[in-house]
Amino acid sequence: MKAIVRAMHEQGIAKDDAAVISGIGCSGRMSSYLDCNTLHTPHGRTLPFATGLKMARPNKSVIVVSGDGDSMAIGGNHFIHACRRNIDLTLIVANNFTYGLTGGQFSPTTPAQSWAPTAPFGTLEPQFDICEMAQAAGASFVARSTVANLKHMTEMIRLGLEHKGMSVVEVISNCHVNYGRKNMHPEAPEMVNWIRECCVDKEVIEVLPVEALEGKFVVGVLSQKQRPEYAAQWAEIVERAKNGRH
Ligand SMILES: Cc1ncc(C[n+]2csc(CCOP(=O)(O)OP(=O)(O)O)c2C)c(N)n1
């Protein structure tokens, strides 16, 4: 939340010009704690609400805060289509590898072989890569950061706010209580240190052997392109319709 506020400040976005939309999960209360336009929405439905808001108020900077379960499982289809439309939202996914709020059930980003109450013999499913999914679906700005580096996280969110189009910022986060405790990272500092040690900057991956990236989090801006933005195109259609043109 601190990174979001700092990024808004650095980008010169006044609180009345911002809208923060959260889902249900450990990051859900963020919209309630922030003094700007806010919506706390049902689990998995942040992006439909955010899309509606952006269409109705295209001048607002719309920031969406979501968990990995919220945006990749129940809200996975909304995620794909928001990316495909390239609507101007900044989606921050707090990826803590688990359904934290409800007790640690495995989520689409839980690493294979992890222990979870819903997988007492280890998870079978391979992990989703949120950033690869975002890029494949068409998001025009995709970045990854972690809770281990507030300055870096702030900058990734700021760049996402600056970008016109769908921005996805994955933030690798700690849930030492419901994930770490059963998967070798029992305390908050220890888990955050593990996250920090697993980071590899995007700028250096070219010179590293592929094996060196095994189990690592590549951080930084992973892709940025210019593509037509949805709400702006919609406004043009509305103008054409008003003028009776097809
Ligand atoms: C429609 C619906 N299904 C299920 C739930 C129960 N539920 C609340 S939070 C949550 C999981 C949250 O996991 P995630 O989105 O990864 O966020 P985290 O708590 O880990 O930050 C679930 C399943 C719900 N509130 N609404």
CATH homologous superfamily caption: Thiamin diphosphate (ThDP)-binding fold, Pyr/PP domains
Class computed from helices, strands and strand pairing: alpha/beta
> Would you give the CATH topology?
Rossmann fold
Small ligands present: thiamine diphosphate
Q: Unreliable runs, pLDDT <50, ≥5 residues?
A: none
Number of self-contained structural domains:
1
User: Count of DSSP helices?
Assistant: 9
H/E topology pattern: HEHEHEHHEHEHEHEEH
Distance between the termini: 44 Å
Report the biggest beta sheet as strand number plus sense, adding barrel if it closes.
8 strands, mixed
Number of strands: 8
Strand order of the largest sheet: 2-1-3-4-6-5-8-7
The CATH class, by name, is Alpha Beta
Name the overall outline: globular
Taking all residues together, what is the mean pLDDT? 97
Radius of gyration: 18 Å
The helix fraction, in percent, is 25-40%
CATH architecture: 3-Layer(aba) Sandwich
Kindly report the oligomeric state of this protein.
single chain
